[in-house]
Every structure is written in structure tokens, then in C-alpha cells.
Amino acid sequence: MTTLPVALIQTCTPASPGAAFAHVEPLIRQAAAGGAKLILTPEATNFLIQDRVAREAVLATDDRDEAVLKLRALAKELGVWLLIGSAIVRSGHEGDDRAANRSLLIDDQGAVTARYDKLHVYDVDLPTGERWRESASIRPGDGAVVAETPWGGLGLTICYDIRFPQLHRALAKAGARMIAVPAAFTVPTGEAHWEVLLRARAIESGAYVLAPAQAGAHEDGRKTWGRSTVIAPWGEVVAKLDHDEPGVLFAALDFDAVDKARNAVPQLTHDRDFALPR
Asked: Which of 265-273's residues contact partners 24+ apart within 8 Å by CB, and which partners?
């Protein structure tokens, strides 16, 4: 039996990288002290700023961002693997001034071992009147990523990606035994869809789903749902923070459960070509 102690960090991230690190650091230390070997933070761990001008003033590449650099040093100090669920950073694409919403996997020596840019940007008009156009400021990525860890493949996704089952299936077929879903879900969509989507993606992929979330009322005016959750490969909730306050969620992943789920329903091997509807 191969088990992995993990911790999900739930934050209410402030509007500057320095303040964001000060907010998340004690939670990560708590997670490491509790025995977690892999620690995951939410989407936009390095800052949450809606105003584009204000964001431009603090935006940096991921090798220069203050919060990212300090988080890398912290992972090395604590001897843990750390997934920065995402950092909002300069994309580095010439001719496109939009930022990247980027996951960064940090090993226990503080090195970046994998990067993933959010594939699906959040452009929606909600029934509540909320309107989001992430594409105006975020450049979508163009490739899926399964990161190698000492415990097996970790599929990387971010927030709105959860609504695209084909991505999660591709990650599972490429070797992911756990899939990260760091998020900053709105309250209306979180209340309606968060848990059911997480459970569906776990069942479909036969993988653990690890979903650390932003939570509460933020400095930039948004409100996020929280409820960080770990889902097992058979679809059951393993652990959950049932609130929208900062906190640490611990869980132990038993990877025998991945094999058991995939052997019971070997759906990943049953793909068939089919004609599209006309």
C-alpha cells in the first residue's frame, strides 16, 4: 500500500504578493507540522486584484514574483513538495500583454519541476448579474500537464477547467493518479456546482481530486466559495472544509484505491470512435 499525507490550504488571498505570502506562510507551516508531504494552495495564491492597472503594478514573471520566490524557499526549508495552485504572472509571450494563470509544482529542494497555464478562461454572465471576462487579462495555455512526483503522476488543472471532462480524462490516461483543482469559485457557482463537479471528475478519471480553494470576502471586492475538498477515485468525499474561512485540510491518499476503482470500472480503456451528431 502506498499512501501519501497531503494538505490543502484554503486562503483569502490579499491584493499584494508580500501580503499574500504573509497570509499563506503560517498555513503551510501548519500543514508541514501536521505531516503533509505534498501541500497544495489555491488559484491566485500570489495576489487577487481585479483592477488591471493595479495588477500591472505588481505583475512579474514567475522567477521574479515575490510570493513565488518566498514559497519556493519555504518548500525547501520545510522539505515538502508544494503545488502553488496558481500564480498570476507575466506570460512571457511576445506581443500579448495578458498575464498567465500558472500552476507551479515545487519540489522539496525549492525547484520548479512543472508549470501549467490555465487552459480554459472564465468568460461568463451569471444569473445573479455577475459578469466575468478572464480572457481580457489572462492568456490561456495551450497544453495539458501531468507532473511527476515521488508518489506518481499529478494532473494539473485550474478552476474553470473542472467543467471540461475531456481534460481530466486525458490527464488520467497520461498517467495522473491524482488531479489538482485549485480554484477561486464564485459563491453562486460554488454553491450550485462545486462538489458535484469535483466528484464527477474523480469518478470519470478514477483519480484522487485535490481541490484547494480561495474563500471569503477579498480586498478586491470579490467573494469566493471556499469548501476545499478531497475526493477519492470512487467519488466519495474524503475530507472537506465546510466553510469559507482560511484553514488547512489534511487527508491521506491510498493509491490502492486508484487501482481498485480503475479495475472495477475500466472506462479509461473503453474509448470508441464514433460519428459526431449532425
From this structure: 265/206, 267/204, 267/206, 268/169, 268/172, 268/173, 268/205, 268/206
